[in-house]
Design goal:
Oligomer: homodimer
Helix content of chain A: 25-40%
Largest interface: A-B, 57 and 57 residues
Low-confidence stretches of chain A: none
Largest sheet of chain A: 6 strands, mixed
CATH class of the largest domain in chain A: Alpha Beta
Distance between the termini of chain A: 46 Å
């Protein structure tokens, strides 16, 4: 059975998008499409061009025996700015203010339409850095962290707040929350991370960064390194952060008596 | 700026895959590609054919003023069977047996390559049923449930084990675990689900189904209905389930003294 170029282009697009950061050998495609290598190579030239013109990420061909084609996620900068501006508008709604001066953002954190876009922006920051794991702490940041791990094609690691029987031997550390000064525990199965791994930490919200600082210490127990921190909403009322560097998408600066919530695209987004 | 048919086909494929179950008006594409409606319609005929030939789901055009094009996820049955067979092979490894006769499967539950495929199979069961929410209970099933919600284009709802300050007023119910007979609590923010919604429950592992039965009761508090249950691994040692119907992908039937783990594709998968 033979297929038209248009059909191959559609299927190739799907396969590449489904396999970020994986080198796919061209033989896989020549067999799937019953086509010559030269034909597939021409298809890939077209794809490279289309992905580049529409800011859909990068398609590269890698020469040699272990070579093939690789897709890396990427963003449309204007689209990303517009998305974050819209997200700020969605957050700035006084009905989100709940007793205890918290902001209800759970609906956004669990909405695939929001998380897909936010995850793509954060993943593109850490793409091509040779990340082994995306790490998060349960619960609210899990969809975002999963989305980033999906886009980077690496495993997700979820640190737990308490010991879980079904995870075998665990490593636990204590850490002090930067904002409330309360002592807390985080726990991770010994099997979860191989030694000498490169990790990033992804979370939905950051205040003083106590959790992120805890993650750095936890990763030391696994002889592994934290290469970066990506946060959706940064509470910039907490000026003194316990960690040095992080990338955030939205700056949150509290709300006034009228219920106007101060929420703006972060410097990182503004400078895209 | 004009684009070639091949370029449009690649970008159209990505946009459809990114927007499952959403009707996209053709005007969106005519503007994006600076092309006539008839041209886009021809592109979509090619896409329909390609998606159908390669079992990538369904592309439909919907006539009328509110019409457009809609993509619904779908599976390649042979591919799904092969994937589940491989997954059973990955689970059947005696190093996964941990003290307390638990099975360590956390790495699989957090691996996007596994969860993407498993999520797609479960999503395709419930596609086109007009689902409003995908519901899960923290923590291990969250990536799977998120993936299903992503494929269905609906919001995810994560039920918590304890009360969370940042979620406002909550509804809590008590339920008895079907296997351990221990009384447990589940909690959900009042804002999480609108009344009269249709939900499905997705989880990584099921024993007697106590959690799923609890979810049915919790949803009643929201005047909402559970339309279906999708589980990755069904512990078939628990023969008397507390719930009537569920779809599972893998049957787990314990392990013997040699450490052979009995794990097979479920009847649902075998009958695909």
């Amino acid at each position: 059975m033979k297929f038209s170029r248009n059909e191959r282009i559609s299927v190739l697009t799907k396969i590449l998008l489904d396999n970020p950061d994986k080198i796919i050998n061209l033989n896989y495609f020549t067999e799937k499409f019953n086509a010559a290598k030269s034909t597939i190579s021409e298809d890939l030239v077209i794809l490279k061009e289309a992905f580049s013109k529409f800011n859909m990420g990068k398609v590269e061909t890698i020469a040699g025996a272990a070579g093939g084609v690789k897709y890396t996620c990427g963003i449309n900068k204007t689209g990303a700015k517009d998305f974050i501006k819209n997200l700020c508008g969605m957050i700035n709604n006084k009905e989100r203010i709940i007793p205890g001066d918290f902001l209800y953002i759970t609906d956004l954190m669990y909405n695939p339409l929001v998380i897909k876009e936010a995850g793509l922006i954060l993943a593109s920051v850490f793409a091509d850095k040779g990340i082994d794991y995306v790490v998060t702490v349960e619960t609210k940041g899990i969809p975002l962290a999963y989305e980033v791990s999906r886009m980077l094609g690496v495993e997700l690691v979820i640190v737990r707040r308490e010991n879980i029987f079904s995870e075998g031997s665990t490593v636990s550390i204590n850490y002090v929350s930067g904002s409330t000064k309360i002592l807390q525990t985080m726990t991770l199965s010994k099997r979860a991370i191989k030694e000498n791994s490169k990790c990033i930490f992804i979370d939905d919200f950051m205040k003083a960064g106590g959790t992120a600082a805890g993650i750095i210490n936890l990763l030391k127990e696994f002889k592994s390194e934290l290469l970066g921190i990506g946060i959706l909403i940064d509470n910039v009322q907490s000026k003194e952060k316990l960690i040095k560097d992080h990338v955030s998408l939205v700056d949150y600066n509290g709300f006034n008596e009228e219920g106007d919530i101060s929420v703006t695209p972060s410097k990182f987004i503004q400078n895209l």
